[in-house]
TrEMBL record:
The gene is nagB. Keywords: Carbohydrate metabolism, Hydrolase. This is Glucosamine-6-phosphate deaminase. Its EC number is 3.5.99.6. SUPFAM superfamilies: NagB/RpiA/CoA transferase-like. Pathway: Amino-sugar metabolism; N-acetylneuraminate degradation; D-fructose 6-phosphate from N-acetylneuraminate: step 5/5. GO terms for molecular function: glucosamine-6-phosphate deaminase activity; identical protein binding. It holds the Pfam family Glucosamine_iso. NCBIfam families: nagB (TIGR00502), PRK00443.1-4 (NF001684). It comes from Geosporobacter ferrireducens. GO terms for biological process: carbohydrate metabolic process; glucosamine catabolic process; N-acetylglucosamine catabolic process; N-acetylneuraminate catabolic process. Residues 10-228 form the Glucosamine/galactosamine-6-phosphate isomerase domain. Catalyzes the reversible isomerization-deamination of glucosamine 6-phosphate (GlcN6P) to form fructose 6-phosphate (Fru6P) and ammonium ion. Belongs to the glucosamine/galactosamine-6-phosphate isomerase family. NagB subfamily. One of its GO terms (cellular component) is cytoplasm.
Amino acid sequence: MKIYVEDNYQKLSKKAAYILASQIRLKPDSVLGLATGDTPLGMYRELVAMHQREDLDFREIKTFNLDEYYGLEKENPQSYHYYMMENLFKHVNIRKENIHIPDGEASDIEEACSRYEGLIRQAGGIDLQVLGIGRNGHIGFNEPDVKFEATTHLVHLDADTIQANARFFDSIDKVPTQAISMGIKTIMQAKKIVLLASGHEKREIVQKALEGKILPELPASVLQLHNDVVVILDQKAAGELKEI
Ligand SMILES: O=P(O)(O)OC[C@H]1O[C@](O)(CO)[C@@H](O)[C@@H]1O
């Protein structure tokens, strides 16, 4: 595991964008796994700027997002479909048919999940997966007490996650209680993983995930078992690490 500690969020975002841009330039038909949440927003801004300034080319890129709320329409401003369109896809030259996000409106959930896994396989697997980390250690929407062998599936969100994400909704009772998420197995099959964390409130969970025991109670701890993980932190999120 390679850990970079950057001075601040802006530098973290630039570093992450640089790694993604290198992946895109070295392999223009890369398959990228993408994340939502506040943390990658700066990285997406940088990538859009690189596309506009330097012609960073997304034409052959395929993307698979980690997760989507279950029960929200794609057009809902709180959906991850909407987030990805607004923050990345509508600003770059990616082809619509190359964008994949779990279907939060699927009526046959099992079929939708296994189709998603099939599409990832058909694309040749994920070359580079971007991750954030939840305050409870979740990656994607894989909540504590996760099954490490799970692939894409329906998850029930933890009270902590619902609370944390309530800031994006009018009230807490509007936050969906379920989501479709890639599983830990799906994530661990990515060839390379880039984990981002920023801010004081992540410092304890980052320390436990990177330096503590590998436990289903802390889903992100499984990343210690992956052989190509780059972690990019700002100073605040790195504050509790012992080995830096
Ligand atoms: O970057 P944030 O907003 O702290 O979110 C952390 C994690 O929580 C989620 O937003 C889900 O709750 C994930 O998508 C994200 O990786």
